[in-house]
What does this fold into?
Amino acid sequence: MHFLIILLPVFGIFVTGFMAQKVLKFDIANLSKMSLYILSPFLAFKTFYSNQLTVAYAYYALYVLAY
It folds into this structure.
């Protein structure tokens, strides 16, 4: 039962998006660009804001810069 409580909202979002796509005919390219360029920085900011910074984040940053 606990499994359903966790997955039901996720499937609800999928079903809502599927029905909205059928009715409203979203432009997928624009939605993906918005998701990548606008929403991703907000997600990263929220992650760093809600978690304590440790040395591991410095290693991640160095890895990304070296990559």
Summary: The first helix runs from residue 2 to 24. The chain has one domain: 2-66. Residues 4 and 11 are 10 Å apart (CA to CA). The mean pLDDT is 88.
